[in-house]
Amino acid sequence: MTSAPSRKTPPAPKPAAPGRPKDLGKRAAILDAAKRMFTAHGFERVSMDQIAAEAGVSKLTVYSHFGDKETLFSEAISAKCEEQLAQGLFAVDPDSSLRERLVGIGRAFVALINSEEALAIHRVVTTQPPPVKLGQLFWNAGPRRVQEAFEGLLRHEVAAGALDIPDVHRAASQFFCLLKGEMHMLLLCGCIDCIDAGEAEAHVQATVDMFLRAYQAAPARKR
């Protein structure tokens, strides 16, 4: 994962309009339609009318759930991350080792960033002339959310004495940058069409081993 931009928090997106309890099925349909439309056509060339038509709902329903297009874009990114990197993945699990948890996070992250949807939305944000704030919306809804959840896990392990990390934020960024590696760039550049599953697994295992060699706390010496 690349270095974070300014951590200054932008204005919060507009809240959805108040009213009756929202239909979760319609919300899911709108998010699915938004992900398809944004990845296929970019941000500027997609309207709320088009998303409503794609989802089979009224434009009023879309606005009722999400308020504006920027909020819908952010929620679509968050939903994609949650599909493969649910918050529970970063929870403390006493029944598994730290290495097992890091490997699980690594596998999920590699699968996410190298998926066709994620690659497409990355190109939308970096190659088209979007609004200036689109990149910040993407960062806050996806990479920042994932990295902050991981930082929480690292802080817990530091407090427990399992890890020795002087700068948790930097260490979290390093972990995700290592996981992206060469494979992600090859996919983005179109040099390869897909990643070999065995190579992806070997990359995750090696990355976790390197991370632990750097930050695993030394065992306490016996007196």
From TrEMBL:
InterPro entries per UniProt: Homeodomain-like_sf, HTH-type_TetR-like_transc_reg, HTH_TetR, Tet_transcr_reg_TetR-rel_C_sf, TetR_C_Proteobacteria
Residue ranges the record marks as coiled coil: none
Region (Disordered): 1-24
Residue ranges, compositional bias (Pro residues): 8-18
Keywords, in A-Z order: DNA-binding
Segments of the chain annotated as binding DNA: 47-66
This protein's record includes keyword Lyase: no
Protein name, UniProt field: TetR/AcrR family transcriptional regulator
Organism for this UniProt entry: Lysobacter yangpyeongensis
Top-level taxonomy: Bacteria, Pseudomonadati, Pseudomonadota, Gammaproteobacteria, Lysobacterales
